[in-house]
Amino acid sequence: MSEAQRGTLALVMVAALGSIMGVFSKALSPSLEVTQQVALRCALGAAVLLPLAMRPAARARIASVSRADLSRIVVSTLSIYVMAISLNTFAYVNGKYGAAATVMALPFSAFLGFLLYRERFSGRQIATIVMASLGAVIVIGASFAVSWGDALAMLAALGSAFFMSLGIMSQRGLTAALSIAEKTFLMLAIAALVLLVLSAALMGFGQDAPHLDGRVLLIGLIAGVANVGFLFGTNYGVKRVHATIVNNALALQTVFAAVVAWLVYDSLFTPNEYIGAALIVLSVLLHRRTVNPPRP
Protein backbone atom coordinates (compact mmCIF):
# COMPACT_ATOMS: atom_id res chain seq x y z
CA MET A 1 0.00 0.00 0.00
CA SER A 2 1.40 3.41 -0.99
CA GLU A 3 1.76 6.37 1.38
CA ALA A 4 -1.07 8.14 -0.42
CA GLN A 5 -3.37 5.15 0.07
CA ARG A 6 -2.47 4.93 3.77
CA GLY A 7 -3.09 8.66 4.09
CA THR A 8 -6.49 8.29 2.45
CA LEU A 9 -7.45 5.46 4.81
CA ALA A 10 -6.40 7.60 7.78
CA LEU A 11 -8.65 10.41 6.58
CA VAL A 12 -11.57 8.02 6.10
CA MET A 13 -11.05 7.02 9.74
CA VAL A 14 -11.12 10.71 10.64
CA ALA A 15 -14.46 11.08 8.83
CA ALA A 16 -15.86 8.08 10.76
CA LEU A 17 -14.68 9.54 14.08
CA GLY A 18 -16.09 12.94 13.15
CA SER A 19 -19.49 11.37 12.54
CA ILE A 20 -19.76 10.10 16.14
CA MET A 21 -18.58 13.28 17.87
CA GLY A 22 -22.15 14.54 17.95
CA VAL A 23 -23.18 11.55 20.08
CA PHE A 24 -20.75 12.69 22.77
CA SER A 25 -21.92 16.29 22.38
CA LYS A 26 -25.57 15.37 22.90
CA ALA A 27 -24.78 13.04 25.82
CA LEU A 28 -22.78 15.72 27.65
CA SER A 29 -25.05 18.69 26.89
CA PRO A 30 -27.39 18.25 29.93
CA SER A 31 -24.41 18.54 32.30
CA LEU A 32 -21.94 20.82 30.50
CA GLU A 33 -22.03 23.95 28.38
CA VAL A 34 -20.35 23.82 24.97
CA THR A 35 -16.94 25.21 25.99
CA GLN A 36 -16.96 23.15 29.19
CA GLN A 37 -17.51 19.83 27.46
CA VAL A 38 -14.96 20.52 24.73
CA ALA A 39 -12.44 21.52 27.42
CA LEU A 40 -13.12 18.28 29.31
CA ARG A 41 -12.75 16.14 26.20
CA CYS A 42 -9.45 17.83 25.29
CA ALA A 43 -8.08 17.62 28.84
CA LEU A 44 -8.86 13.90 29.11
CA GLY A 45 -7.41 13.26 25.65
CA ALA A 46 -4.21 15.02 26.67
CA ALA A 47 -4.15 12.97 29.89
CA VAL A 48 -4.27 9.76 27.83
CA LEU A 49 -1.15 10.88 25.94
CA LEU A 50 0.68 12.29 28.97
CA PRO A 51 2.79 9.14 29.63
CA LEU A 52 4.12 9.31 26.07
CA ALA A 53 4.76 13.05 26.27
CA MET A 54 6.65 12.70 29.58
CA ARG A 55 9.28 10.32 28.24
CA PRO A 56 12.73 12.01 28.37
CA ALA A 57 13.22 12.10 24.60
CA ALA A 58 9.68 13.42 24.04
CA ARG A 59 10.09 16.10 26.73
CA ALA A 60 13.32 17.24 25.11
CA ARG A 61 11.71 17.52 21.68
CA ILE A 62 8.68 19.38 23.03
CA ALA A 63 10.89 21.78 25.01
CA SER A 64 12.96 22.58 21.92
CA VAL A 65 10.12 22.89 19.42
CA SER A 66 10.74 25.71 16.98
CA ARG A 67 8.75 28.93 17.11
CA ALA A 68 7.43 28.28 13.60
CA ASP A 69 6.14 24.80 14.50
CA LEU A 70 4.64 26.06 17.76
CA SER A 71 2.86 28.87 15.90
CA ARG A 72 1.37 26.40 13.42
CA ILE A 73 0.30 24.09 16.25
CA VAL A 74 -1.40 26.98 18.05
CA VAL A 75 -3.20 28.13 14.88
CA SER A 76 -4.33 24.58 14.14
CA THR A 77 -5.45 24.07 17.74
CA LEU A 78 -7.47 27.29 17.87
CA SER A 79 -9.06 26.50 14.50
CA ILE A 80 -9.97 22.88 15.26
CA TYR A 81 -10.93 22.94 18.93
CA VAL A 82 -11.66 26.47 20.09
CA MET A 83 -13.64 27.25 16.92
CA ALA A 84 -14.58 24.16 14.87
CA ILE A 85 -15.34 21.62 17.62
CA SER A 86 -17.15 24.21 19.74
CA LEU A 87 -19.29 25.22 16.75
CA ASN A 88 -20.03 21.64 15.71
CA THR A 89 -20.94 20.78 19.30
CA PHE A 90 -23.52 23.59 19.21
CA ALA A 91 -24.75 22.40 15.81
CA TYR A 92 -25.14 18.78 16.89
CA VAL A 93 -26.93 19.70 20.11
CA ASN A 94 -29.34 22.18 18.49
CA GLY A 95 -29.80 20.88 14.93
CA LYS A 96 -30.63 17.72 13.03
CA TYR A 97 -27.75 15.25 13.42
CA GLY A 98 -27.34 14.13 9.81
CA ALA A 99 -27.90 17.59 8.32
CA ALA A 100 -25.29 19.15 10.62
CA ALA A 101 -22.73 16.48 9.67
CA THR A 102 -23.45 17.04 5.99
CA VAL A 103 -22.90 20.80 6.18
CA MET A 104 -19.59 20.08 7.91
CA ALA A 105 -18.56 18.09 4.83
CA LEU A 106 -18.49 21.16 2.57
CA PRO A 107 -15.28 21.23 0.46
CA PHE A 108 -13.32 23.96 2.22
CA SER A 109 -10.21 21.73 2.32
CA ALA A 110 -9.85 21.86 -1.45
CA PHE A 111 -10.22 25.63 -1.61
CA LEU A 112 -7.78 26.16 1.26
CA GLY A 113 -5.32 23.79 -0.45
CA PHE A 114 -5.39 26.12 -3.43
CA LEU A 115 -5.23 29.34 -1.39
CA LEU A 116 -2.57 28.24 1.11
CA TYR A 117 -0.44 25.85 -0.95
CA ARG A 118 -1.26 26.79 -4.57
CA GLU A 119 -2.21 23.20 -5.39
CA ARG A 120 -3.33 22.77 -8.98
CA PHE A 121 -6.46 20.85 -9.90
CA SER A 122 -7.28 18.72 -12.92
CA GLY A 123 -10.67 18.75 -14.59
CA ARG A 124 -11.62 15.51 -12.80
CA GLN A 125 -10.63 16.92 -9.43
CA ILE A 126 -12.65 20.07 -9.99
CA ALA A 127 -15.64 17.96 -11.06
CA THR A 128 -15.48 15.88 -7.88
CA ILE A 129 -15.33 19.03 -5.75
CA VAL A 130 -18.37 20.44 -7.55
CA MET A 131 -20.22 17.14 -7.11
CA ALA A 132 -19.45 17.00 -3.38
CA SER A 133 -20.51 20.64 -3.03
CA LEU A 134 -23.77 20.00 -4.87
CA GLY A 135 -24.52 17.05 -2.60
CA ALA A 136 -23.96 19.17 0.50
CA VAL A 137 -26.06 22.05 -0.89
CA ILE A 138 -28.99 19.70 -1.55
CA VAL A 139 -28.95 18.53 2.05
CA ILE A 140 -28.67 22.09 3.39
CA GLY A 141 -31.58 23.21 1.20
CA ALA A 142 -33.74 20.38 2.54
CA SER A 143 -33.42 21.46 6.17
CA PHE A 144 -32.28 25.08 6.33
CA ALA A 145 -35.76 26.65 6.42
CA VAL A 146 -37.31 24.38 9.06
CA SER A 147 -36.89 26.88 11.92
CA TRP A 148 -34.63 29.67 13.15
CA GLY A 149 -33.06 27.20 15.57
CA ASP A 150 -32.18 24.83 12.73
CA ALA A 151 -30.92 27.75 10.65
CA LEU A 152 -28.60 28.87 13.46
CA ALA A 153 -27.37 25.31 13.95
CA MET A 154 -26.62 25.02 10.22
CA LEU A 155 -24.72 28.32 10.27
CA ALA A 156 -22.68 27.00 13.19
CA ALA A 157 -22.02 23.81 11.18
CA LEU A 158 -20.92 25.93 8.21
CA GLY A 159 -18.46 27.85 10.39
CA SER A 160 -17.26 24.57 11.87
CA ALA A 161 -16.56 23.19 8.39
CA PHE A 162 -14.40 26.19 7.50
CA PHE A 163 -12.38 26.25 10.73
CA MET A 164 -11.96 22.47 10.76
CA SER A 165 -10.54 22.55 7.23
CA LEU A 166 -8.30 25.50 8.09
CA GLY A 167 -6.95 23.68 11.14
CA ILE A 168 -6.38 20.43 9.26
CA MET A 169 -4.69 22.11 6.30
CA SER A 170 -2.53 24.24 8.63
CA GLN A 171 -0.84 21.04 9.77
CA ARG A 172 0.73 20.73 6.30
CA GLY A 173 3.47 23.16 7.31
CA LEU A 174 4.57 21.24 10.42
CA THR A 175 8.05 19.73 10.29
CA ALA A 176 8.93 16.22 11.45
CA ALA A 177 10.65 17.54 14.60
CA LEU A 178 7.81 16.19 16.77
CA SER A 179 6.13 12.81 16.52
CA ILE A 180 2.42 12.61 15.79
CA ALA A 181 1.78 11.69 19.45
CA GLU A 182 3.73 14.72 20.65
CA LYS A 183 1.96 17.09 18.27
CA THR A 184 -1.40 15.65 19.29
CA PHE A 185 -0.60 16.03 23.00
CA LEU A 186 0.43 19.66 22.53
CA MET A 187 -2.71 20.46 20.56
CA LEU A 188 -5.04 18.88 23.11
CA ALA A 189 -3.22 20.43 26.08
CA ILE A 190 -3.28 23.92 24.53
CA ALA A 191 -6.95 23.54 23.59
CA ALA A 192 -7.87 22.39 27.11
CA LEU A 193 -6.06 25.35 28.68
CA VAL A 194 -7.64 27.94 26.37
CA LEU A 195 -11.13 26.48 26.74
CA LEU A 196 -10.87 26.18 30.53
CA VAL A 197 -9.96 29.87 30.73
CA LEU A 198 -12.80 30.73 28.34
CA SER A 199 -15.28 28.61 30.33
CA ALA A 200 -14.24 30.30 33.59
CA ALA A 201 -14.70 33.71 31.98
CA LEU A 202 -18.16 32.78 30.68
CA MET A 203 -19.17 31.57 34.14
CA GLY A 204 -18.43 35.11 35.30
CA PHE A 205 -21.12 36.27 32.87
CA GLY A 206 -23.73 33.87 34.19
CA GLN A 207 -22.98 30.59 32.41
CA ASP A 208 -23.95 27.55 34.51
CA ALA A 209 -21.25 25.72 36.44
CA PRO A 210 -20.36 22.23 35.16
CA HIS A 211 -22.02 19.17 36.70
CA LEU A 212 -19.40 16.42 36.85
CA ASP A 213 -20.13 12.84 37.87
CA GLY A 214 -18.86 9.38 36.93
CA ARG A 215 -21.07 9.15 33.83
CA VAL A 216 -19.93 12.54 32.52
CA LEU A 217 -16.26 11.71 33.13
CA LEU A 218 -16.60 8.33 31.38
CA ILE A 219 -18.24 9.87 28.31
CA GLY A 220 -15.63 12.64 28.36
CA LEU A 221 -12.83 10.04 28.47
CA ILE A 222 -14.24 8.12 25.51
CA ALA A 223 -14.63 11.40 23.61
CA GLY A 224 -11.06 12.34 24.56
CA VAL A 225 -9.73 9.07 23.12
CA ALA A 226 -11.75 9.78 19.96
CA ASN A 227 -10.10 13.23 19.82
CA VAL A 228 -6.68 11.56 19.98
CA GLY A 229 -7.61 9.26 17.08
CA PHE A 230 -8.97 12.22 15.13
CA LEU A 231 -5.76 14.21 15.45
CA PHE A 232 -3.57 11.17 14.77
CA GLY A 233 -5.50 10.58 11.55
CA THR A 234 -5.36 14.17 10.35
CA ASN A 235 -1.66 14.60 11.24
CA TYR A 236 -0.81 11.42 9.35
CA GLY A 237 -3.11 11.77 6.36
CA VAL A 238 -3.03 15.44 5.47
CA LYS A 239 0.65 15.47 4.41
CA ARG A 240 0.32 12.41 2.18
CA VAL A 241 -2.51 13.27 -0.18
CA HIS A 242 -3.73 16.07 -2.43
CA ALA A 243 -6.18 18.59 -0.95
CA THR A 244 -9.02 17.16 -3.05
CA ILE A 245 -8.51 13.75 -1.43
CA VAL A 246 -8.57 15.43 2.00
CA ASN A 247 -11.78 17.15 0.96
CA ASN A 248 -13.55 14.12 -0.46
CA ALA A 249 -12.44 11.65 2.22
CA LEU A 250 -13.75 13.98 4.93
CA ALA A 251 -16.99 14.36 2.96
CA LEU A 252 -17.69 10.71 3.80
CA GLN A 253 -18.61 11.99 7.26
CA THR A 254 -22.07 12.59 5.77
CA VAL A 255 -22.52 8.89 5.03
CA PHE A 256 -21.19 7.75 8.39
CA ALA A 257 -23.39 10.31 10.15
CA ALA A 258 -26.49 8.97 8.39
CA VAL A 259 -25.72 5.51 9.79
CA VAL A 260 -25.05 6.92 13.28
CA ALA A 261 -28.28 8.97 13.22
CA TRP A 262 -30.26 5.86 12.28
CA LEU A 263 -28.61 3.52 14.79
CA VAL A 264 -28.51 5.89 17.76
CA TYR A 265 -31.46 8.23 17.24
CA ASP A 266 -33.68 6.23 14.87
CA SER A 267 -33.49 9.19 12.48
CA LEU A 268 -33.44 8.70 8.72
CA PHE A 269 -32.42 11.09 5.97
CA THR A 270 -35.12 12.59 3.80
CA PRO A 271 -35.07 11.67 0.06
CA ASN A 272 -33.19 14.90 -0.74
CA GLU A 273 -30.64 14.16 1.96
CA TYR A 274 -30.10 10.68 0.52
CA ILE A 275 -29.54 12.22 -2.93
CA GLY A 276 -27.01 14.67 -1.51
CA ALA A 277 -25.16 11.96 0.40
CA ALA A 278 -25.10 9.76 -2.73
CA LEU A 279 -23.49 12.57 -4.74
CA ILE A 280 -20.80 12.96 -2.08
CA VAL A 281 -20.04 9.23 -2.12
CA LEU A 282 -19.93 9.22 -5.92
CA SER A 283 -17.49 12.14 -5.89
CA VAL A 284 -15.13 10.08 -3.73
CA LEU A 285 -15.42 6.99 -5.94
CA LEU A 286 -14.73 8.98 -9.10
CA HIS A 287 -11.59 10.49 -7.66
CA ARG A 288 -9.34 7.50 -8.30
CA ARG A 289 -6.02 9.22 -8.62
CA THR A 290 -4.17 10.69 -5.65
CA VAL A 291 -1.40 13.24 -5.89
CA ASN A 292 1.28 13.54 -3.23
CA PRO A 293 1.97 17.18 -2.36
CA PRO A 294 5.53 18.42 -1.98
CA ARG A 295 6.91 17.81 1.47
CA PRO A 296 7.52 20.97 3.49
Protein described:
The protein has 296 residues and is mainly alpha-helical. It has one domain (3-289). The chain is 77% helix and 0% strand. The protein is built from 13 helices and no strands. Helix 5 crosses helix 8 (148-170), helix 5 packs antiparallel against helix 12 and helix 11 runs antiparallel to helix 13 (271-286).
Give the overall pLDDT as a whole number. Answer: 81
The dominant shape is globular
Q: What does the largest sheet look like?
A: none
Q: Taking Cα atoms only, what radius of gyration do you get, to the nearest Å?
A: 18 Å
Fraction of residues in helix: over 70%
Tally of structural domains:
1
Unreliable runs:
288-296
Structural class: mainly alpha
Number of helices: 13
Q: How many beta-strand runs?
A: 0
Order of helices and strands: HHHHHHHHHHHHH
Beta-strand proportion? under 5%
Query: Regarding quaternary structure, how should these chains be classified?
Result: single chain
Q: What is the CA–CA distance across the termini?
A: 23 Å
InterPro entries: EamA_dom (IPR000620), EmrE-like (IPR037185)
Keywords: Membrane, Transmembrane, Transmembrane helix
Transmembrane segments: 38-58, 70-91, 97-117, 126-145, 151-169, 185-205, 217-238, 245-265, 271-287
Domain EamA: 7-140, 153-286
